[in-house]
Design a protein that fits this description.
The complex is a heterodimer of chains A (542) and B (258). Chain A has 542 residues and is mainly alpha-helical. Chain A folds into 2 domains: 11-277, no CATH class; 298-541, no CATH class. Chain A has helices at residues 2-12, 15-23, 28-43, 55-79, 83-111, 114-119, 126-155, 166-195, 198-224, 239-264, 268-276, 290-299, 301-317, 319-324, 328-341, 358-372, 392-423, 425-446, 464-489, 493-531, 535-541. The longest helix of chain A is centred in the last third of the chain and has 39 residues, at 493-531. With 258 residues, chain B is α/β, with parallel strands linked by helices. Chain B contains 10 helices and 10 strands. In chain B, helix 3 packs across helix 4 (110-123), helix 3 (95-105) packs parallel to helix 5 and helix 8 packs across helix 9. Chain B is globular and about 55 Å long. The chains are: A mainly alpha (542), B alpha/beta (258).
Chain lengths: 542, 258
């Protein structure tokens, strides 16, 4: 195995590949220097931002996808799905997953150029640098495409009418789709880097990263509205002109992709510094919030206020946090719109409505927030907390909790006003109390998932491939919880009231214990920070 | 007139819509050690980054060794050595590995590179730490590594942005002597610093930038004569209209007592 690996390496670094790289405008010597550097930095856990270089995470993700695709294959074969539908489903799933992951990876690689800052003054041309940076996208394809397609490709032979060569065709098509998507993602950011001012690039990159999630939402709504794709009547009706038109559109698409990728090979490293330090330059009005004063009074003095304000500001301004919250969009908007459509029907009417889902949607929101909130773009600023007196973290943790609690209380207050209009004050009050209690239980439990001081760690790209499977799993668990709630709880207002009281008590007790655990987590991770030999922390220690 | 190593002509630079350099022009010539002075936020580091090919100006023309920027940025970077003010490093690399990376990216032959690294590390008293990771280095040691990386490929133009920051007294004295020796060997050095007495000792010409405009360009003697001041610090205060610090100090002390 080692001999094969060495032979492949010798070939890749040999004259044939060097000639090819040169023809593409890439300097082979510098390219391999950079590849070795990025590999070394990932291996030594200095940079987590390149998923394709994290072999362990890639293998874990591939195994998760083997299991997921295996389960789907079982279902489809039992259901007797046709070969064409089977092929389309797996290709579509591959495209959706890869688009989500690769767009995020390209954005993080090009718009968050942490290594670029160190290398900006080195004599490296844009084509070589971006080629080295984006090579890890190919590694992602090499792991995830087989993970999603190998079992389905082989298992298809059990389907009726499947030719013997189908597995080969399936795998080739899946790799082709992956490659096209990788090139497309690079082209998108090539165009953005070319035309968007560096100070706006991070915001626009974040919007671009939303595209697959917005597409996912569009699919959801198109089903709701019984939308059907129709060929416009103004298109030519004969086959030949349609083919010519399709060819022309294809040629334009290819040109756009090629030009986008070429744009990356321009003066990328000249822009790196401006991109990395980019910001809107907008001045923020200095103000003291009354809510902050209230939190200080109720939750633990100035440290609580510090935690409350820190979280409020960082959640709005930290680029990494905001982009990691993108998967929340469909999770918040889809149930939100569905609930809005069903707003006239009270959950106490005995009918099932989208309102039943609402309390549990908070659970998913807090799950995502709790698991990503420790990661931040300015994680090195966490040294400040090493100087805080140990006693301050109790109040600080409570302040953070208070800020998260407002994410429950504010929407529920609004909801109460709206629902009272439709359902009457009794039903609305009871439902809002129940929903608040459920959300508070989720928050209390999920506080334990916060692994340290918020915004104090470098974002870890190895989480990305698991987001969609986790969402599917979360959706399944939520469906079970909603089902139990519908059949067991919303049978009578008295039961709802009793369960609400029980949940409120559970939330109170659970939160008390979770806050203590959260405080310990903060101290523990700050302890790790102080002992890690990062320059900035060592200086503070000294 | 000899050919300029750096020619800055009517250069304008903006961060977003805020113009931070307003039509700045100057030239640097071979063998000169030029001090670049200015208050915080004046545009010194921006000026140096434009010369280093890291930032592209919005207007005007910049050439380094006759090569236009940003079009020939890669060739310019081959000819310069740059010590940034606040440098990020690859913390998990060792000092030796970082210097090897820098030298190889500049295409220095391997044998030459190893000899240079050994000599520089020994001179900087870093030989025993060459195999330690950079995240275990003190600030002064990191600064020495950055200076070493800037010199390894024997550049024509050396851009130093606060190079003595964090260095101990002996290392600082050595760097000052090194600057003089490099200039005597025909290198051009642009030296940005807030430590005016060092600038006074090592530089034979001074540029002062204030609020994005070049307000002074000349030898130390000529600047002292034109402003009728006795030291560079006095020249600087007079030209940048620096306020008397005493009332500000009094306000801070009063606020701390409240």
């Amino acid at each position: 195995m080692k001999a094969i690996r060495l032979a492949i390496q010798r070939f890749l670094r040999g004259p044939a590949v060097s000639r090819l790289l040169k023809r593409l405008g890439i300097d082979p010597r510098v390219y391999w220097l950079l590849m070795d550097l990025f590999g070394q930095l990932s291996e030594r856990r200095e940079i987590f931002s390149q998923l394709g270089r994290d072999g362990v995470a890639m293998r874990k993700a591939a195994w998760a996808y083997y299991i997921l695709s295996g389960l789907m294959v079982l279902l489809f074969i039992v259901a007797g799905m046709t070969l064409a539908t089977y092929f389309a489903v797996f290709l579509g799933l591959t495209a959706l997953l890869l688009f989500t992951i690769l767009l995020s990876e390209t954005n993080n690689s090009l718009v968050n150029p942490v290594e670029g800052l160190v290398l900006a003054h080195q004599p490296i041309d844009g084509a070589t640098y971006t080629a080295a940076k984006l090579t890890h996208l190919l590694r992602i394809l090499l792991h995830l495409v087989p993970g999603l397609n190998l079992i389905p490709a082989l298992a298809a032979l059990m389907l009726k009418g499947c030719p013997w060569y189908y597995p080969l065709l399936h795998m080739l098509a899946a790799f082709a789709v992956g490659l096209v998507i990788a090139l497309f993602c690079c082209a998108i950011f090539g165009w953005l880097i070319r035309f968007v001012p560096p100070s706006r690039l991070k915001s626009i990159g974040m919007i671009a990263e939303m595209a697959p999630w917005l597409g996912y939402m569009a699919i959801q709504f198109s089903r709701v509205g019984h939308f059907k794709l129709r060929i416009p009547h103004w298109l030519p009706s004969q086959r030949e002109p349609r083919l010519a038109l399709a060819a022309a559109v294809g040629a334009i698409a290819v040109t756009i992709v090629v030009l986008g990728i070429r744009a990356l090979s321009g003066d990328y490293l000249v822009r790196v510094s401006a991109i990395a330090h980019g910001g809107s330059g907008r001045k923020v009005k200095a103000r003291r919030s009354h809510l902050g004063a209230l939190v200080a009074r109720l939750f633990g003095g100035p440290p609580a206020r510090a935690g409350f304000d820190y979280l409020s500001r960082m959640m709005l301004r930290d680029w990494q946090f905001r982009r990691q919250m993108i998967p929340l969009i469909p999770m918040v908007l889809v149930p939100g719109f569905a609930a809005a459509q069903a707003i006239r029907v009270s959950p106490f009417s005995g009918k099932f409505t989208a309102m039943h889902i609402l309390p549990h949607a908070f659970g998913i929101v807090f799950y995502l927030i709790s698991t990503v909130i420790v990661f931040g773009a300015d994680h090195q600023g966490a040294w400040l907390f090493l100087l805080a007196p140990a006693g301050a973290f109790r109040g600080f943790a409570r302040g953070v909790y208070a800020r998260l609690l407002t994410l429950i209380l504010a929407p529920h207050a609004l909801l109460l006003a709206v629902l009272a209009w439709y359902w009457g004050i009794r039903d609305a009050g009871l439902f809002v109390a129940y929903s608040t209690a459920v959300a508070a239980v989720y928050l209390g439990l999920e506080l334990r998932l916060i692994e340290g001081m918020p915004f104090s760690k470098q974002p870890d790209a190895s989480r990305n491939p698991f987001i969609l499977p986790m969402m599917l799993l979360g959706g399944a668990l939520m469906a079970i919880a909603v089902g139990l709630q519908y059949f067991l709880v919303f049978r009578s207002p008295v039961v709802v009231m009793a369960v609400t009281v029980a949940l409120a008590a559970a939330a109170w007790l659970g939160t008390r214990s979770s806050l203590e655990a959260f405080e310990v987590n903060i101290r523990f991770h700050l302890g790790i920070l102080s002992t890690e030999s990062k320059g900035i922390y060592t200086e503070v220690d000294a | 007139m000899p050919e300029a190593i750096v020619a800055f002509e009517q250069v304008v630079f903006s961060y977003d819509f805020v113009e931070v350099l307003h039509r700045i022009s100057f030239s640097l010539y071979a063998g000169q050690v030029v001090g670049l002075l200015g208050p915080n936020g004046a545009g010194k580091s921006t000026t140096i980054k434009i010369i280093a090919g890291i930032l592209a100006p919005r207007g005007g023309a910049v050439t380094v060794a006759g090569l236009p920027l940003p079009e020939r940025a890669v060739d310019v970077k081959q000819r310069i050595g740059y010590v940034p003010e606040a440098a990020a490093l690859f913390e998990s690399l060792t000092g030796q590995e970082f210097l090897e990376l820098s030298g190889r990216l500049h295409g220095v032959e391997e044998d030459t590179l190893q000899i240079r690294i050994r000599e520089i590390l020994e001179t900087f008293s870093l030989s025993s730490d060459r195999s330690s990771r950079l995240d275990t280095y003190s600030k002064g040691m990191r600064q020495k590594v950055l200076i070493a990386a800037a010199l390894l490929h024997n550049p024509e133009l050396i851009l130093l942005d606060e190079p003595l920051s964090g260095l101990d007294v002996n290392a600082a004295i050595m760097i000052k002597d090194l600057i003089a020796a490099l200039a005597a060997g025909g290198k051009t050095i642009l030296y940005s610093s807030h430590v005016l007495d060092v600038v006074e000792k090592v530089c034979d010409r001074v540029l002062i930038i204030h609020q994005g405009s070049l307000i002074a360009d000349g030898s130390l003697e000529s600047l002292k004569a034109s402003t009728q001041q006795e030291s560079l610090e006095d020249v600087f205060r007079a030209l940048t209209h620096s306020a008397n610090a005493e009332p500000g100090v009094a306000r801070i002390v009063a606020a701390l007592r409240s």
